[in-house]
Amino acid sequence: MKKTVYLLALTALVASCAPEKKPEMALLNAKDFEATVDGKEIELFTIKNNDIAAQVTNFGARIVSLFALDKDGEYQDVVWGYESIDAYLKATDKYSGPVVGRFGNRIGKGQFTLDGREYQLSINDGENHLHGGAGGFSTKIWDAKQLNDSTVTMSYFSADGEEGYPGNLTITLTYTATADCALKLTYSATTDQTTIINPTSHAYFNLNGTSDNAMEHTLMIAADSFTPTDKGLIPTGEIRSVAGTPLDFRAATTIGERIESDYEPIVFGGGYDHNWIFSKQSLEHPQVRLYSAKSGIEMIMYTDQPAVQFYSGNFMDGIDTGKRGDKHNYRTGVALEAQNYPDAPNHDNFPSSVLKIGETYTQTTIYKFSIRK
Ligand code: BGC
């Protein structure tokens, strides 16, 4: 008897995110994602483990839905997305949930030099290159395979010269729903010619479900410094301390509290749209904590990347209609993009984003969920 009680207590401890009852999950219908584009099949996959579930599509290797339990024992879908492939293809918003690359974030004027040779990438953001260009990884149909109930793997072959990048590059991304209530993203990539690489996931999170204003969430970023930019959001090369600025999130702070500040970087970003440099680069540290008191959901981001772009949805404009009729309204989601620094190929003092023949690029990023009552 004693043994049974002990075992029950232990089970409760291990499965600390497990609910007492099994609530409903508003899963999307895989049929609504069946399509053939450029001769390739688009699909929607569902992965689950304990109390986390995600739906991902091979269109842009994108996260479509992500379910986590709230303090009332109900599932909330905590990412922005659309309910069918048609809606994704029609949306004016191109960056809800995909992997962006070959180089996520911006490269000034789309230019860089590698091994003494100058390269010109496609231009799709004013005079700059953003998220791998208009035909970047987020627009491609990846080859995908569900390995088991909790794992889907996807890969994409990016040909030499695509969007101006040198080298044939093969990238693989595996999504895993893990037993401890996390969604884990593991990337690897190889090339046949020296190139640059900086892929990241561009999911918009809202821990109350996606139609709510996200500015009441609190945020912690374990970063002492950031990279100031020009008006076009291209880093100047300076690495500036966050101390005494509205970008200091070392202690958890409500996002909306300082977002209307007249601090020049905030004005340039139209809110938060900056690259924070982690004080310590390590997969073991909680690098970002996003929390909503309303739902009680906390998300911790772990990553082996050196930095994160925190973007507060300043360009969300309400034009597109998302899942369950939600409007893609101003600041209703926040992107937390684990990455190397923007424009890294043009700054010797930034970490290198160069990938050479024989090397393997790797990245691990984890979004882990728990409930705080
Ligand atoms: C960038 C924003 C950009 C957005 C597009 C973010 O990663 O930092 O400036 O507008 O992506 O969705």
Structural notes for this entry:
The chain is mostly beta strands. The protein has a single domain, classed as Beta-galactosidase, Chain A, domain 5, CATH 2.70.98.10. Helices cover 7% and strands 36% of the residues. It is built from 3 helices and 29 strands. It has helices spanning 2-14, 85-90, 264-269, and strands at 35-37, 40-42, 44-49, 52-57, 62-69, 75-77, 99-100, 106-107, 111-114, 117-120, 129-130, 143-148, 151-158, 169-178, 182-191, 195-196, 200-201, 204-205, 218-221, 223-226, 240-241, 253-254, 273-278, 288-291, 297-303, 307-311, 334-339, 354-355, 361-371. The strands form 8 sheets. A 9-stranded antiparallel beta sheet has the order 12-13-14-15-29-25-24-19-22, with no helix packed on it. The protein has a 6-stranded antiparallel beta sheet with strand order 18-27-26-23-20-21. Strand 9 (111-114) and strand 10 form a beta hairpin. It starts with a helix and ends with a strand. The model is unreliable at 1-15 (pLDDT under 50). Beta-D-glucopyranose is lined by residues 95, 233, 273, 309, 311, 315, 335, 337.
List the helices and strands and how they pair.
Blueprint: H1 2-14, E1 35-37, E2 40-42, E3 44-49, E4 52-57, E5 62-69, E6 75-77, H2 85-90, E7 99-100, E8 106-107, E9 111-114, E10 117-120, E11 129-130, E12 143-148, E13 151-158, E14 169-178, E15 182-191, E16 195-196, E17 200-201, E18 204-205, E19 218-221, E20 223-226, E21 240-241, E22 253-254, H3 264-269, E23 273-278, E24 288-291, E25 297-303, E26 307-311, E27 334-339, E28 354-355, E29 361-371
Antiparallel strand pairs: 1-2, 3-4, 4-5, 5-6, 7-17, 8-11, 9-10, 12-13, 13-14, 14-15, 15-29, 16-28, 18-27, 19-22, 19-24, 20-21, 20-23, 23-26, 24-25, 25-29, 26-27
The structure holds beta-D-glucopyranose.
